[in-house]
Design a protein that fits this description.
The structure is a homodimer. By secondary structure, chain A is of the alpha/beta class. Chain A is about 40% helix and about 20% strand. Chain A has a single domain, classed as Thiolase/Chalcone synthase (Peroxisomal Thiolase, Chain A, domain 1), CATH 3.40.47. Chain A has a 9-stranded mixed sheet, sandwiched between helices. A two-stranded antiparallel ribbon of chain A has the order 5-6.
C-alpha cells in the first residue's frame, strides 16, 4: 500500500493575536482540503499534533475539539512528542494508511504560543526536557548553547559559521510570504544582535510563533500527488547528560538509516532538505547526522552556498524554524508541505529546479525524538 | 493479521506518594514483560498514554522519557485523549500491529495525580472540557451532575439507583488487592456521604489516583494469549451544550456499532464488561449506549445484580473507576488487562465463570472521545 500527499495548507506563521487555536485549525484544514479537492466527509481518520495547549490554555482533548469544529465523529488522535509532534502525526497517519484500515487521513499540526508572556513559554518549553534539566534552571537555548560550545571546541568552527546558516534561512524566508520573518539579514546585523545563551545570539534562535499546517494523506493517487516513501521515528534519552556525544543526535542517525532503507534510495538521490534548525547549530548537526556532510563539515553547506535554493543541496527553503517560524507542532507538517510544494513546482521565487526527492528531519527536545520523512515524485 | 495480548501488569492504584511517574512506568513495564515472558529488546514500538504530566509536572515528551528509562531507541509515541488516553494507546498499538509493520507493541498508561492539591487537579481535569465550560466555572463533577439531573428527570430514576452501582463497584474492589478502595460500602454510608455536585455525592465520583498499567500486544500467539477482535475510536463535540441529547454518548454508540461489526460478534456473545464509571451515572448510560440495556433501563444491571461477578453480565469486576481508582490514562489499559485476566481465569475471588468474550468501553471528557475494545479467547 503506497501513501501519497494530495494537498495541504500552511497558515501564516507569526504573532497572530487575532487568531485562536480553533481559528488556526479551521483555516488550515479548510484550505488543505480545498487544495486537495477533498470533502471532509470523506476523511476517515485525523491525527493532530500539538505540544503546549495543555499548559498555555489548560486545553487537552484536542481530538474532541476538532470533532466539534467540523461536526464529525470519526477517529481523531492527538499525538505529542515535543517539537517533533507534527512529524510524529505525519508518521502515524502514514502508518495507519499502510495498514490499509483507512484510505484517507488528515494531519494537523497546530500551536498557539504568543498569547502569554515569553517567560512562561520558556518554562513550558522546558517540558520537552528532563526534570533534572528543569531543576538546574537551564533554558532550551541554554541546552543548545552547551551543544554549540562543545561543537565549537571539538570541530573548530565559530559563530561565523552559525551566521551563514541564519543568513541563508532569512534569505529563504524573504522569498516566503507565509514566513514569520520575511526579510534578509546581514552579517553585521547578526554580529550586533544580543546574546541569548553564549555562544548563541538572537539570530541563532528560532522564535515563538503561532501557526498551523494541515496535509491530506491518501492511499489513492491523483494529479500532483507526491508519495511518502519512508517515515521513521527514533528516540533517545530525554536528558543531554545521558548521551555519549552531545555533538550528534543518535535518534536522527537511526531514523535516517531506517528511512533510507525503507525508501530504497541513496543520499545522492535527494534533491532538497527541510531540517530542524531550532538553533543554527542544530542545522549543521542535522546535515551530518543525516549523512550528507562528514562530521565537523556541516558548516560547509551554508558557507559554500550549497544550501541555497539554487545550490547543490538546498536546505530549509521555507526559511526553516529560524525564519519561517516555529509554531511547534505545525513545524513537522510544514516541512513536509514545503517538500510537497517544491516537488510540485509551486514554490514561486524560491523554487528548487527539478526537485523530485525531498527529506524532512524534525526533532523533539534536544534529540530525544527524531522523525525522518522522505517524499518522492 | 491478528492481534493478541500476551501479558500485562497493573500497579496498585491509589495515593502512591512514595512513587514517581518514572517509578510507575518502570514497575508496570518490568512486570508486564515478565508476565508475557518477553524481553524489552524485542519490543518494536511503544505507545504511552498520559493526560496530565504536562500540567502537573511541566513534563511533556514522555516518549523520550521512556527511551531514557529503558535505554532504548525504538519508536515511542505518546497519545492523549483526556480520560480515554489509555485505550486510545491500546487502539493505536492494535492498529499498527494490524499494519504488519511491527509484530510486538508495548502499551503503557500512566498518571501521577496526588502530588498537588486537589483544587489544582480539578482545574486541570477541566482541560478535557471546552473553553466555554471552563469559563463558566463548572467542574467535571458539575458536568456529570447536569447529565444525571436530566437523566433523573427523563427516566425517573433517583440516587437510589446510582447507589446500586457504587455499592457493586465497591464490592468488586473489595475483592481486588490492586484497587484504591478495597472495601465494601453500605447504602447507609452512600446516603450519608457529602454532596459533591447535586445530585452526585462522594460515592458517585471516581477518585484522584496514581497508577500505571502496561500490556504487551503481539501478532504472535502464545499460551494465555487473548485476541483483540475489535478496537474502535469515535469522537463527538467537546462541549456538552453542542449535543442533541446529554443522556447518551453518541461516541460510545458509534464505537460500539463499529467494534461489534469488526469483531463479528453479537451482544449476547459478550460475557463481561469494563465500562467508564467516572461517575455512577456514566455506568448506567454506558450500558445503554453499548446496547446491553434499553434506554432508561441501565439501572437494572446493578439493581438486579446482573452486574456482579457472579451475575448474568458482570460489569467492572475490577471495581471500576469508582473503586479500583482512576489514574486517568492507566484506566483504559487496566480495563483491557482486567478482561485479559478474567478470560485467563486468573482473577481470584472475583473470577467470572467461563469468561470468554469481554468488552471495554472508555471515554474522554463527557464523551468527546469513546473507545471500545473487544477481547476474545
Amino acid at each position: 500500500m503506497k501513501v501519497y500527499i494530495k494537498g495541504g495548507y500552511q497558515t501564516k506563521f507569526g504573532e497572530l493575536w487575532d487568531k485562536s487555536l480553533e481559528d488556526l485549525i479551521f483555516e488550515s484544514v479548510k484550505f488543505a482540503l480545498k487544495d486537495a479537492n477533498f470533502d471532509i466527509k470523506n476523511v476517515e481518520v485525523i491525527y493532530i499534533g500539538n505540544m503546549l495547549a495543555s499548559q498555555i490554555y489548560n486545553q487537552n482533548h484536542l481530538n474532541s475539539l476538532v470533532s466539534e469544529i467540523f461536526n464529525i465523529n470519526i477517529p481523531i488522535i492527538r499525538v505529542e512528542s515535543a517539537c517533533a509532534s507534527g512529524s510524529v502525526a505525519v508518521n502515524q497517519a502514514y502508518t495507519v494508511l499502510k495498514s490499509n484500515l483507512y484510505k484517507n487521513a488528515l494531519v494537523i499540526g497546530v500551536e498557539k504560543m504568543t498569547d502569554i508572556p515569553s517567560k512562561k513559554i520558556s518554562k513550558f518549553l522546558m517540558s520537552a526536557a528532563s526534570s533534572s534539566e528543569r531543576l538546574s534552571g537551564i533554558t532550551f537555548a541554554g541546552l543548545y548553547a552547551l551543544i554549540a560550545s562543545k561543537y565549537f571546541s571539538d570541530y573548530k568552527i565559530t559563530s561565523r559559521q552559525l551566521a551563514d546558516v541564519s543568513i541563508k534561512n532569512h534569505f529563504h524566508a524573504s522569498l516566503n510570504e507565509k514566513s514569520q520573518f520575511p526579510f534578509k539579514i546581514t552579517l553585521d546585523k547578526y554580529n550586533n544582535s544580543p546574546i541569548i545563551a553564549s555562544p548563541l545570539n538572537l539570530f541563532d534562535c528560532s522564535p515563538i510563533s503561532d501557526g498551523a499546517c494541515t496535509i491530506l494523506l491518501s492511499s489513492e493517487k491523483q494529479k500532483n500527488s507526491v508519495e511518502i516513501v519512508a517515515s521513521k521515528v527514533a528516540t533517545d534519552s530525554i536528558s543531554l547528560d545521558k548521551r555519549e556525544n552531545i555533538c550528534e543526535f543518535k535518534s536522527t542517525k537511526i531514523a535516517a538509516l531506517n528511512s533510507f532503507k525503507e525508501a530504497g534510495i541513496e543520499r545522492k538521490d535527494v534533491d532538497l532538505l527541510e531540517v530542524h534548525d531550532c538553533f543554527t547549530i542544530a542545522e549543521i548537526i542535522a546535515l551530518e547526522d543525516l549523512g550528507f556532510y562528514k562530521k565537523g563539515e556541516g558548516y560547509r553547506s551554508s558557507k559554500e552556498k550549497d544550501s541555497y535554493y539554487y545550490g547543490k543541496l538546498p536546505v530549509n527553503t521555507s526559511g526553516g524554524l529560524k525564519a519561517c517560524g516555529h509554531p511547534i507542532a505545525a513545524t513537522g507538517v510544514k516541512q513536509v508541505l514545503e517538500l510537497f510544494n517544491q516537488i510540485n513546482g509551486r514554490s514561486g521565487k524560491r523554487q528548487v529546479k527539478n526537485a523530485k526527492v525531498g527529506l524532512a528531519q524534525n526533532i523533539g527536545g534536544t534529540g530525544g525524538t527524531a522523525v525522518v520523512n522522505i517524499l518522492k515524485k
